[in-house]
Input
Amino acid sequence: MNFTFLGKYYMFFISGAKNTVILAALTVLLGVMLGTVLALMRLSKFRVLKFISAAYIEFIRGTPVMVQIFIVFYGLPQLGIEFPEVPALG
Output
């Protein structure tokens, strides 16, 4: 294997690894917070809160991840939420 390109591009790998760890940590934190809120809603005495949490949970469980990605990628810009441009390497 030829690893000579690492001398030129190692900072991109370091930056990517750092961004991946930050994104993973934020995702876990957000998931724990959302899961806690949904669990408390599901245990609530109020039927409306139970229904909202059950509907959300069943939608997430019932749709494939690729469909959810398409909904986020194509649906959010329709609501005015734009994603930042990702610079191309090379």
User: Anything to note?
Assistant: The mean pLDDT is 91. The CA atoms of residues 8 and 47 lie 59 Å apart.
